[in-house]
From TrEMBL:
UniProt xrefs under Pfam families: Abhydrolase_6
Family matches, as InterPro entries: AB_hydrolase_1, AB_hydrolase_fold
Signal peptide: 1-18
Species lineage: Eukaryota, Fungi, Dikarya, Ascomycota, Pezizomycotina
Native organism: Helicocarpus griseus UAMH5409
Keywords for this protein: Signal
Domain AB hydrolase-1: 111-376
Protein name in UniProt: AB hydrolase-1 domain-containing protein
Top-level taxon of origin: Eukaryota
């Protein structure tokens, strides 16, 4: 801190604007790293699932999960429990430089499995790839966070703590903090001091954005907590017969502990698994080798209890949600659409899922792109399709 101050003073004394030393400054906004204590209580369970303590266990677990005759969902519950705690959730809040009305709209983006919040904000060619940067350019504020068990957030027990209902509750708590102004107050006080965060009004509208497992959560969130969201962008997720068809074995998982600071039950994709799940389209034009390398570099382990509990957040109907919903699907998403998202969606079915949103639901297909939308060429053009959709609906 003292060093930062000294540098700032030096810069000032040389007549250079203090902002040149502001690490939070981006091309189109300002970002702050936050460690937010989030208190949450939710239903949980002890599931009948294998233990993963080495690489052989990791592949065995995947085959065990994919075996067609294995019982899944509620039947795997051995005991119902409750989980309660205060968890450190690492987040990044960014606010745009432009001061149009969109500044009062906050997007809350939830990443999927195998990644952390950097998925939304790749450092690799940010101007072209980062959804955060694109949002700032379009005038939105945006909160990204590492889900529980991922990145710089708390890393609790993989079997009994990191489960879907608790993660949904954490998203609800973050949303409540954003709505009542606590989030922006917290950001204003967090170091380093950045003038851009000092006098921002709390957001008047919230848009929830998800990718993959983060879209499971976002879909469940608007279904269960309809009044807390004004619009949703669901990327890399659609509930069809093809969802998850490639199976857990497509991850080419190994035990996370040798390469990451993780306990029992955390698995991580090998690079081949990262390509299988996340990269698709014409290999000459859809993505570059650098994007695949980067996608492998920022991968994150996954706690297996998250998969066992995922059924809680899939397929919920939202009779009360009345905001606009855009499904943004990569054309060649392998994990979600078994390689081709075109023609497998049914607007009528989506309107039955969210009846009050009928007429405000759109499915968009991003050409020549795989599941990791942000790490493919032409991502920026896809983001614009989303921003145009939001603008059309007053967001
Ligand atoms: C757990 O709770 C669910 C929902 O309340 C119930 O249907 C199920 O029977 C319970 N399972 C056990 C093992 O107690
Ligand atoms: C890039 O994305 C936009 C928006 O989805 C699309 O209209 C355009 O055809 C894409 N370009 C290519 C070369 O795929």
């Amino acid at each position: 801190m003292a060093a930062v101050l000294t540098t700032t003073l030096l810069l000032l004394s040389h007549g250079i604007s203090a902002t040149t030393n502001d690490h939070s400054e981006r091309a189109h906004g300002f970002c702050k790293q936050l460690d937010i204590p989030v208190s949450a209580t939710s239903d949980s369970a002890i599931y009948d699932i294998p233990r993963v303590n080495n690489d052989i266990d990791a592949i065995s677990w995947a085959i065990w999960s994919d075996t067609w005759s294995r019982v899944k969902g509620p039947q795997t519950v051995v005991k119902n429990t409750t989980t309660s705690g205060t968890f450190n959730i690492h987040a990044q809040l960014c606010v745009p430089k432009a001061s149009d009305q969109k500044k009062n709209i906050l997007q809350i983006a939830t990443h999927g499995v195998h990644y952390d919040s950097r998925y939304w904000d790749p450092e690799l060619n940010r101007e072209e790839q980062s959804y955060v940067e694109a949002s700032l350019r379009a005038g939105y504020s945006i909160l990204t966070y590492d889900r529980l068990g991922v990145g710089q957030s708390d890393i609790p027990d993989a079997y009994e703590v990191v489960q879907a209902p608790l993660e949904l509750e954490i998203l609800r708590q973050l949303t409540l903090m954003a709505r009542n102004g606590d989030l922006y107050n917290f950001a204003a006080k967090a170091n380093p001091a950045t003038a851009a965060f000092d006098k921002i009004e709390k957001p008047s509208k919230l848009v929830h954005v998800g990718h993959s497992f983060g879209s499971f959560l976002t879909s469940a969130f608007i279904a269960k907590h309809s009044s807390l969201s004004d619009g949703a962008i669901i990327t890399g997720f659609l509930l069809t017969e093809y969802l998850g068809k490639p199976g857990m074995s497509s991850f080419n998982a190994e035990y996370a502990a040798p390469s990451f600071d993780r306990p029992s039950g955390y698995i991580v994709c090998q690079k081949s698994g990262i390509q299988t799940i996340f990269f698709a389209g014409d290999p000459n034009t859809a993505f570059t080798k650098e994007m695949l390398d980067y996608g492998d570099k920022i991968k994150q382990p996954v706690p297996i209890g998250e998969f066992a509990s995922a059924y809680h957040i899939i397929g919920l109907t939202g009779p009360d949600f009345a905001g606009p919903i855009q499904y943004m699907l990569p054309e060649f998403d392998f994990y979600i659409c078994y390689g081709d998202c075109k023609g497998i969606y049914d607007i009528e079915h989506l309107e039955k899922t969210y009846p009050k949103a009928a007429g405000k639901i759109e499915v968009a297909i991003q050409p020549n792109t795989g599941h990791a939308f942000t790490l493919h060429n032409n991502a920026t053009a896809g983001y614009q399709v989303t921003f145009d959709f939001l603008a059309k609906h007053g967001l």
